[in-house]
Every structure is written in structure tokens, then in C-alpha cells.
């Protein structure tokens, strides 16, 4: 996989993250016209007008999330299921929510084929989080809200970490790491990114 060579130069150095990205075949998550480009370090179109993220950005976000073997993780924006597959190898339990039923179903099929039984994919509005399953040790958004959503922070365990792009969808956004401590929430800005917007409601 070509893009594996560019992960390190983009700052992805965590050995467990690199090993997980080596194991997951991105080609399984990109269908049709763009399948032949699955191994390039580029975002690519997927159905429903959405995108599978650029591998180096997936690597940076996963690394920033500091997933532990016992972590219970919520991903908002399943899309192709690629990011969920990587989280599946690093975490105990992954919940991934997607507002497009078609995407949730096809991601479920690919994850089933790969035998990734610790991932639950749900068609739901992720802007509400997943109150029934909360709290989560880690929350990852792969769609950008305009501000960090307070209701999602509330679903984070003490000591938990949330990684998310924040900003307007038509401009450059910031990748933010939010850490919940005893005294409140600390925010670190990691880099500039470009993601599809977090849209409220089911598609
Ligand atoms: N993590 C994905 C990238 C998906 S792009 C991957 O690895 O392929 C972001 C996804 O977020 C899109 O599929 C979009 O439909 C979804 N999304 C946007 N707003 C959402 C919301 N409120 N709830 C759930 N999913 C949402």
C-alpha cells in the first residue's frame, strides 16, 4: 500500500497505529471508479456525496485519540467504514454512527467480511451522540461541526479524549483534541483539515 510510506512523513509514528493501518486493506472500502486509487494518500469520493478520509489524516486522528486496548470508542460518521476498521483493531469496543442508511449498510457488510465483530454500526444522527451507550472513553468525529458540541463532551468519560474537526464546511477547519480532566476540558489544536460538515438529522 503506497500511502504507508507517507504516513511517517506526515507525523504518524505510533507503532500500534501504523501496524493497524498496515493490516486494513483500504481497497475493500472504496468501490467503483476510484477503487484503483485506494492506495494513494488522498481522500476519495464514496456514495451519497461523502468522502473516505485521506489515510495520513486517518493516521493522525487515530494517533491523537490515544486508543487503549480497553477503550470503548464512539465514531461519528461511519462513511465507508475504513476508520472504524482501524479503531476495531485498537479498541475493545467501537460504536460507529452514520446518517446515511446506505453507507451504514455497506460499511457493515465490509466489516462483517473482515470479521470485525467488536464494531456496531448504527444509522443514527451522531450529532446527538449515543446517550444509551455513554459514557465513552474516546469519541472521534469524522464530520465537522461549527463548534465543539457540548452534548458530545458530556458523553465522554472522566479522562476521556475527543478528536474532531471544527469549522465551517466551505473553509479550512482545525483538527482539535479535547481532553476531559477533573477541572474541565482542555483543547489542543493539531493541524488544518478539510472534512464534510456534520449535518443534523437522518439523511
Ligand atoms: N470515517 C469515514 C469518513 C466519512 S466522511 C471513513 O472512514 O470512510 C463523514 C461521514 O459523516 C459521512 O458519511 C456523513 O454522512 C457522516 N455524517 C455527517 N453528519 C452526520 C451525523 N449528524 N450523524 C452521523 N453521520 C454523519
What does this entry look like structurally?
- With 203 residues, the protein is an alpha/beta fold.
- It has one domain (4-193): Rossmann fold (3-Layer(aba) Sandwich), CATH 3.40.50.150.
- The protein is 26% helix and 29% strand.
- It has six helices and nine strands, in the order H-H-E-E-H-E-H-E-H-E-E-H-E-E-E.
- The strands form two sheets. A seven-stranded mixed beta sheet has the order 5-4-3-6-7-8-9. It has a two-stranded antiparallel sheet with strand order 1-2.
- The radius of gyration is 15 Å and the shape is globular.
- The termini are far apart.
- The mean pLDDT is 96.
- Bound molecules: S-adenosyl-L-homocysteine (SAH).
Strand content: 25-35%
Query: What pattern of helices and strands is seen along the backbone?
Result: HHEEHEHEHEEHEEE
Low-confidence stretches: none
| Molecules bound to protein | S-adenosyl-L-homocysteine
- How many strands appear in the DSSP assignment? 9
Structural class: alpha/beta
Write down the Rg: 15 Å
Strand order of the largest sheet: 5-4-3-6-7-8-9
Compute the separation of the termini in Å: 33 Å
CATH first level: Alpha Beta
Instruction: Count up the helices.
Output: 6
> Would you tell me which CATH topology applies?
Rossmann fold
Specify the helix fraction band. 25-40%
Amino acid at each position: 500500500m503506497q500511502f504507508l510510506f507517507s504516513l511517517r512523513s506526515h507525523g504518524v509514528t505510533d507503532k500500534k497505529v501504523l501496524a493497524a493501518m498496515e493490516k486494513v486493506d483500504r481497497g475493500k472500502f472504496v468501490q467503483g471508479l476510484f477503487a484503483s486509487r485506494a492506495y494513494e494518500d488522498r481522500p476519495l469520493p464514496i456514495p451519497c456525496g461523502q468522502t473516505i478520509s485521506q489515510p495520513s489524516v486517518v493516521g493522525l486522528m487515530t494517533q491523537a485519540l490515544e486508543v487503549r486496548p480497553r477503550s470503548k470508542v464512539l465514531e461519528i460518521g461511519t462513511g465507508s467504514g475504513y476508520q472504524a476498521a482501524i479503531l476495531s483493531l485498537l479498541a475493545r469496543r467501537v460504536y460507529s454512527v452514520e446518517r446515511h442508511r446506505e453507507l451504514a449498510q455497506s460499511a457493515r457488510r465490509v466489516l462483517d467480511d473482515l470479521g470485525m465483530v467488536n464494531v456496531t454500526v448504527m444509522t443514527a444522527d451522531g450529532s446527538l451522540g449515543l446517550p444509551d451507550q455513554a459514557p465513552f472513553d474516546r469519541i472521534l468525529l469524522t464530520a465537522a461541526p461549527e463548534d465543539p458540541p457540548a452534548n458530545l463532551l458530556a458523553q465522554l468519560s472522566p479522562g476521556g479524549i475527543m478528536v474532531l474537526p471544527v469549522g465551517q464546511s466551505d473553509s479550512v477547519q482545525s483538527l482539535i483534541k479535547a481532553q476531559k480532566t477533573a477541572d474541565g476540558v482542555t483543547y489542543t489544536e493539531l493541524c488544518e483539515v478539510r472534512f464534510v460538515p456534520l449535518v443534523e438529522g437522518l439523511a
